[in-house]
Each structure stands twice: as structure tokens, then as C-alpha cells.
Amino acid sequence: MAKRSIALLAGGVGAAKFLRGLVRIAEPHRITIIVNTGDDEQFYGLHVAPDLDTITYTLAGVVNRKNGWGRAGESFRALGELERFYGPAWFNLGDRDLATHLYRSERLHEGAALSEVTAEIAARFRIKARILPMSNERVHTHVKLKGRPALPFQEYFVRRRARGSVEAIELRGIEQARPAPGVLEALAGADAVIIAPSNPFVSIGPILGVRGVREALRAVRDRVVAISPIVGGRSVKGPADRMLRGMGHEVSARGVANFYRDCAGAFVLDEADRRQLEAVRRLGINAVATDTIMSSPARAAALAAAALAAVGNHA
Amino acid sequence: MAKRSIALLAGGVGAAKFLRGLVRIAEPHRITIIVNTGDDEQFYGLHVAPDLDTITYTLAGVVNRKNGWGRAGESFRALGELERFYGPAWFNLGDRDLATHLYRSERLHEGAALSEVTAEIAARFRIKARILPMSNERVHTHVKLKGRPALPFQEYFVRRRARGSVEAIELRGIEQARPAPGVLEALAGADAVIIAPSNPFVSIGPILGVRGVREALRAVRDRVVAISPIVGGRSVKGPADRMLRGMGHEVSARGVANFYRDCAGAFVLDEADRRQLEAVRRLGINAVATDTIMSSPARAAALAAAALAAVGNHA
Q: How close A80 comes to chain B (CA, Å)?
């Protein structure tokens, strides 16, 4: 077990899968997870935080493994009735999941900060790792599709099933967003900072956009390692490849490495992209190749070990 | 079918049972139900209105018939998870039921009046009768037990299962409560006003306490008929008998009639209490005896017909 402290920049499902491995090789109480909240949305008057919940449910062992999000053994009775009032539902909120949103919403309404509520929820799920929202201020990611007005992220991602050519990502509210308490300290104090294999634009991008985060990473760049979510020119999951293409980036591991070059000193790409190692190294990044497909917690653990080794931390 | 318009002052379960009969002999769209909201409570940040929902679910045919409240075929998955955050639950909120509370709470939060939201919910359940909350202002019924501070009604009724000797009922906020739009008009314009066999203190009392309601009833007293919830010296259901006793009233149909004497010109008591007819008549009330035990909708319909007949309305 690595005794060192680790910070992870995380989106949802990909980051959660990675965490299932990371907690096998590092002590959970030494891990701080800084989570994207740009995807958060209000549904039925409730504050829903998909990435925070995916991370929380995964670490608690209550996630629906097939989907990678939501609760295992979930039912949708309330949602069926909500349709009576609101019309057809396009965002799945399960009955068990609702409890989390009710608690979060009531606490926020009482004036608690999202970081406090997130810690309370994690504690009730007996999670030892520290889960931080990137900010207590609201950032609302919008996706601009060709020939259309910008859509809130969940409408693009869930309702439209990520269809359409993405021209731009708008991070509304990002200028006002300050890092949540503990975020900058975790980055400055970590022996290793890992950027999870999440979508660079809509999962990691919002975190990097929060005031001071990019600077904090630059200050410890040689301890920062990013993992490519692009393998063989395609996203392992989700629309990252189409976003890279739509916004004029190279759709490759190298394209992702280039996106992170100012703040990540190391980069892990998949064996399938081994021939890009040199190109990434020419960006001034310590590139390594390994198996990045996390088809089991054991494989995720091996990937986590490789990422830590790339910044000089050995499990 | 009576073509005349009817107003019903209603609490929860007893009034709902009565309505199952009333809608058999009167046209639903000519019925206005004025419902107690003193029992309303906030749970998990949601505005729960037990009496409104019992009436609505009953008229929609989706009520749990065994309990008399809540939804049929209900599950409690969300509640089980809410206990993770809030500790053991003492108020049963089902998954289907939650949808109603979510909708109501969001609309109220948006600034809608409770009467608007109540009408919207009734419309979504295709209810033809008009359901009005007694007031759009918050009245919060508290129960003062011997030797204890006053408790919110649901804590007394559900959490403590109505145990303890009731010394007084406090209707907090009643001085500021104005009748909801349509309440006074319904009373003034009705061919018959029926006071349901609900608890006189905690179900009907709050409605009578709303500014102008008692006066409106007095003005049409000869068209107002109350139905006794006390049969053979005991409540058919609930703690009305103990409340009468605790607050120094006679625990009898006559005791209830006396409570309503200023605003009800007629009174229906049970055959079992036939010997009290004369005593009630001496209060200046047109008393009639019939079977008041509503063991079926048909029996409830017969009771409704008897009540209407007592104020000169014949089905």
C-alpha cells in the first residue's frame, strides 16, 4: 500500500472505475477526489450531482455495476408518478437515488455548502476517501452543437444521447467559481495528482477552469499524471472523441496529452497507442504505455500503479 | 343525482370515506371539498399535506383502501434510504406518494399558491370535484399533552400514535390565515354544506378557525349539516373521544353537536345514539339518526343522502 497522499481529478463513470483500482493499491484515507460538478442539474426541484454520486456510490459498493452509475437494485416508482405531473422523464432518478438528492437539496436549502453536504453523504456511506466537489459555486456546463443554441450538459448527454457535432463547451459560472475548501491544499500537498481517464472537456475541463486549479497543477506539474480516455483514436466510453474532432483537436492520445501539457508532467496511454509515445514525449511529457482498459478492478489497480510509477510513486 | 351544489368540510380518512358515498349520489363537479391543512408538515424538505392527499387519492381511486391513506401498491424504497441520512423514519412516505410531494413542493417554491397546486394535482388525477385547501397560509396544528410542551400534530398523531391526555389544541398561524380563494363563495353558494364525520378539533376545527369561515357557515346555518364522528360514546376512528374528554367536553354525539351548534342547523347521529336525538334538538338543531358506519361506499352513499335530506336536499 502506498503511504503517500494522492489527489484525483475525476468525472463520473471512468473515474469511478479507476478508483475501484486505486483503492486497492493506496490507502483510501490518503486519497482526495476532486469531482466535476459542471454536470449538476436541477430535476423536480432537487439538486442532482451525477459525478459526485457516481463516485460515492462506487466507493460505497452500492453502484449499479452494469450502468456504472445509479444504485444497484434500483426501482423507479417515484419517477413513474412524476411523469404524471411533468410528462415523460428523460433523466433516470431511482427511488433509492432520490434519497440522496432529497438530503442534498434540503441541506443546500438550509444554507450548507456543497462540500459539507458531500462529506456528510460520504460519511453516511462510510467512505474513507475524501470526496470534494470542485467548487461550492454553481458551474453549469453547456454544449454548443452545430446550428443550435447551447444545451445544458444533461440535455445533450442524456436526453439527446450525445448526438450532434459539438462546436464548443461553455462553462457558465466558471469565472465566479472558487475552489471548494481543501481543493488547492490537496493538489499542493499530494505526492501524486492523477487526472482520471475522464472526458477532458466536460469532466476534467470544468475542474481545470475553477480559479487557481490550473495554476496549482502547474506548480506541481512533475507530480501530475493524466490518463488517456482515448484508445486507438476512439473514446473508451462517451463522446470525448467526437468532441475532440468537433473542436478541431487531434482525435488521439497525443491530442489529449497536448490538452494537458501545461499541467501534467506525465501521461499514460494505452498499449494500442504505443507508437504515440515519442510524439507525446516531444510535448515535454513523460509518456508511458500500459493496458488502460479497466475491465476489472484488478486491471484498474494495475493502471493506477502504472500512473503512480510515472510520477515516481511506487506502490 | 342531486343537481344541487354541495360543500364539504373535510379532514382526512373519515371525510374520504364519506366522499366515496357522496359522489354516488351527487354530481362530482358540483362538489367543493374544503380541506384541513393544519396537519401539513415538512418532511425531508417536502411539503406534505396528508388530508389533501387522502381526499385526492381516494377520489382518484388510487388510495390504499386498507389504510385509508397513501397510495395503493406502494413501496418504500426511498424512505429506507432516507433513514441512512435522517435516522429511523416515523412518517411513512411511499415512493409513488413522493412524486406528489415533490411536485407540490417545487410549485410552492416557485411561488404558486397551495390552492393552485392542489387544483393542478387534482387535474392530473382527473378528479372532477373541486378540492380546496382551507387556506393558502400555513396553519400548524399543535397538540398540548398533559405535562408536556405542545407537539406538532403529526408528531402527536403518527409518531406518538395519539397517546397521551390532550389538554389543548393550538392552531398556530390561524389568526393570519385567510380562506383560500373560493372557500367563502362555495359556502355561501352551496345548497348544502356538510361537515364530514372528521375530528372536530384537529380536522374541522382548523377550517372553522380560518377567518370568515365560521361566520359564513352561520349565515347559511339552516343549510349546514354535521355528521357525528362519535358513536356509542367512542370515536369511530382516531382520538376524537379522548380529545373531547381531555378538553372537558361530553364524550357523545351530543357533545359534538354542541361544538357545532352555532354553525350547523342539522346533525346526523348514529342509530346507536338515537336516544340523544331529543337532547340535540334541545340545542336548536334538527337531529336525525341513521347508520353512520361507512363500511362500504353504498353505506356511505346512504349516509350522504340522509345528511342532505336533513337540510332539505333530496337525492
A: 8
